[in-house]
Design goal:
By secondary structure, the chain is of the alpha/beta class. The protein has one domain (3-17, 30-320): TIM Barrel, CATH 3.20.20. It contains 13 helices and nine strands. The protein has helices at 3-29, 64-77, 95-104, 120-129, 151-164, 183-194, 216-226, 242-245, 289-297, 309-322, 324-338, 346-357, 361-372; strands at residues 36-39, 81-84, 108-113, 133-137, 168-175, 198-203, 261-264, 269-271, 280-283. It has a nine-stranded mixed beta sheet with strand order 6-5-4-3-2-1-7-8-9, sandwiched between helices. Helix 4 links the parallel strand 3 and strand 4. Helix 2 packs parallel to helix 3 (95-104) and helix 12 crosses helix 13. The chain is globular and about 60 Å long. The chain starts with a helix and ends in a 19-residue tail after the last helix.
Length: 391
């Protein structure tokens, strides 16, 4: 990698980490504050994967002016991360302008794409727009009737990304009862690591977002992919909820969709998630902090077997907020479970001391929030509830 590009990549990674820390601190300070919003600029897709219920072949792109209004509204609500999805968002002719608007607000910009439309020129345009994260799902090694998102077809695109991308790239492989060749998931994960990308594994869910137990062969592959993990703090690896789902067991948790997580469809309505559209179905322009408080408290019947990763991960922030000591311990134990030689990093030990064990933990929290430039409780939006890490 050229020295100039290497420096830019490192500086951008440092800036991403800074904004991620701000996101975490804001989530700990304010309960009634959305963390992540997934927004749809176009429902059309250039592919037709048989398992997908989130695309069509005819929808027009949402006009840029409307998309910018929606981004501004999300920023006003306090959203820290905006994920652009679809359909296939690369089909939107002004996608880079949307990303620029997200970054204008200091918000983390993430893109979910099938990567078919990537080129060296498009990757550079995404660099210039300030994209932070790109996630690509690769379903198999060779294309089949179920999915054309295959490693062989996308290999050249991945090589371009490894060479040119200044944003972080995550490759997601998939397991599930409908997967024909589960060994492909391990091949995809290993190739992602070889190229210097992050890798995750998703559990295929049905049309209601519900996951089912993995067959024994797939379960062993899932365990092997998990052993490839390297980072402790990566948000993509907050997949503790999957440990029950792959065994066919429910999770006891409180879904915060409609509050911590917002799904904004192409019509500009707020939904719980991509698989539960219609709840609450309120126009984003009218969404208020009172709505966030209401949705935060609602118990969702679909929660026990939910396999929607982004919804599960944002809810974990409230688990940390309510029980930081226990969650930190679980994080450490989970890593030791996949790596017997794991040693708790110095940074993690410092966090535990500074925020949990030190007699002046609360004072350190307040100083930390001021350092990050977050609003105090006196300047929170109406309806927001203040909170700090519990000792």
């Amino acid at each position: 990698m050229p020295v100039g590009k290497s420096l830019r990549v490192r500086l951008r990674a440092i800036d991403r980490r800074r904004r991620e820390v701000r996101m975490f601190a804001a989530a700990m300070q304010q309960r009634a504050r959305p963390v992540l919003a997934q927004i749809i600029p176009i429902r059309r897709c250039n592919l037709a994967c048989s398992y997908c219920n989130e695309f069509d072949h005819s929808s027009e792109p949402v006009p840029l002016s409307e998309m910018l209004v929606r981004i501004d509204k999300l920023a006003a609500l306090g959203v820290s991360v905006v994920t652009i999805s679809g359909g296939e968002p690369l089909l939107h002719p002004q996608l880079e302008d949307i990303i620029c608007r997200i970054r204008h607000h200091g918000v983390i910009a993430t893109l979910i794409s099938n990567a078919y439309l990537l080129s060296p020129q498009r990757i550079q345009a995404l660099n210039d727009a300030g994209l932070d994260y790109l996630q690509i799902s690769i379903d198999n090694v060779e294309p089949d009737d179920t999915s054309k998102k295959s490693l062989r077809v996308l290999e050249r695109k991945l090589e371009w990304l490894a060479r040119d991308a200044e944003f972080s790239v995550t490759i997601n492989s998939v397991l599930g009862v409908a997967v024909k060749d589960p060994e492909d998931a391990l091949t995809v994960a290993r190739r992602a690591r070889a190229l210097g990308f992050h890798s995750t594994v998703g559990i295929a869910h049905d049309g209601a977002g519900q996951s089912h137990a993995l067959p024994e062969r797939q379960f062993s592959i899932y365990q092997e992919i998990r052993r490839l993990e390297t980072g402790v703090f990566s948000f993509a690896h907050y997949d503790r909820f999957q440990e029950n789902l792959v065994r066919g067991l429910p999770n006891a948790w409180h879904c915060r969709a409609g509050a911590r997580f917002l799904y904004i469809c192409e019509d500009g309505l707020v939904h719980w998630c991509s698989q539960q559209r219609g709840h609450p179905g309120i126009p984003l322009v009218d969404y208020k902090h009172e709505d966030i408080e209401q949705q935060y408290a609602i118990v969702k019947e679909c929660a026990p077997f939910c396999g929607i990763s982004c919804v599960q991960q944002t809810a974990m922030l409230d688990e940390i907020r309510e029980n930081p000591r226990g969650m930190l311990q679980q994080l450490i134990e989970r890593r030791r479970g996949t790596d017997p030689n794991f040693r708790t990093p110095l940074l993690l030990r410092f966090i535990a001391w500074a925020f949990l064990e030190n007699p002046r933990a609360r004072a350190l929290q307040k100083a930390f929030v001021r350092l990050l430039g977050l609003h105090s409780t006196k300047t929170q939006p109406r309806g927001a509830a203040a909170g700090t890490l519990n000792r």
